[in-house]
Amino acid sequence: MLALTVVHARAWLHAQSMAQQMRLVDAKSLQGPDKVASAINQRLQLTEAYCWDHSSPRPRAPGIALDSPAANDGTPFSNSIDPSLDHIEQLRQACQHRCPEIRGVMIPRLHGLMLYWLVTLLKPRRVLEVESFVGYSLMWLTEAIHHTLRQSQQVQPNQPCQLPAEPPVVGCELVPEYVALIRHHLQTHQLDKLARIVQGRALDTLKHKLNTAQPFDLVFIDTNKAQYIDYYDTALDQGLLAPGGLIIVDNTLMHSRVHSQYPPVQQVLAEINRDGPNSSDYVEPTYCLTEDQAQQAAQQVYQFNQHVANDSRTEQLLMPIFDGFTLIRRKLTRA
């Protein structure tokens, strides 16, 4: 996700560009590198569609990654469907209907399901999301915590579980309209005892509005790339992340533009480009960003990745999945 104070402006300004990149134009009109990029993007979407159909538990979501009834006119593998998660997909569809341009801003469905899996596997007691946008990823995190509580209490289907005194999931959000939307959705689906949203600037919330006596076991960061380092350092310096706790950071490859700034990679690319097409012609589309904005964000993410790699307090795994997905674990003892 992008910095939410500029989401709407960027979304509307780049709607036409995004429409092309999301396959809403005639692919035959594309030439050269644009045609290659379009073909790659189509293959990625088809791959995501296949993976979604073969994953569980998932809400009912006909059309999946392609948002096209022709792509999936039924609900395959219905035993993988969990109706209790349908509200997450309904939130996604409602937000996209109101503002189609945010499609490229929200995390993909598979990404949300991966967050769900990580939470149910790791079983964190408390979860923090830094900037929640419209609440889509927050709902995945909340339902994962709900599932974990029910499992630990061995609750039978259709029976309520015992809830903690305070909501174990906390989200941060600045935009009042998004805060109201999230709170309404949580209340409507009886999840407000599991998650709460704190309104205000995320950095102020991290520094002044959270109880450090109850640190978080998992923190998800997917927001303004210029503040990645600030959010990361604050979570550690303020004691918000428990020893052994996990920070998950999204967009750490930034549309294939981050690793190309790494000197060893630059050297290899220079050798490749002597005898073939320029590799920079084949970077991934950026949807809601101009190329200049994407390069600036990539530089900020590159600095963040360097910062984390040099930090003795943590250990990390940067994976080339989605748009770059980093797991950062706080060491039990400082090196």
TrEMBL record:
GO molecular function terms listed in the Swiss-Prot or TrEMBL record: O-methyltransferase activity; S-adenosylmethionine-dependent methyltransferase activity
Keywords assigned by UniProt, alphabetized: Methyltransferase, S-adenosyl-L-methionine, Transferase
Pfam families given in the database record: Methyltransf_3 (PF01596)
Gene3D superfamilies found in the cross-reference section: Vaccinia Virus protein VP39
Domain of life: Eukaryota
Entry-linked InterPro entries: Cation-dep_OMT, SAM-dependent_MTases_sf, SAM_O-MeTrfase
Gene Ontology biological process terms from the UniProt entry: methylation
UniProt family annotation: Belongs to the class I-like SAM-binding methyltransferase superfamily. Cation-dependent O-methyltransferase family.
Protein name per UniProt: S-adenosyl-L-methionine-dependent methyltransferase
Taxonomic source organism: Dimargaris verticillata
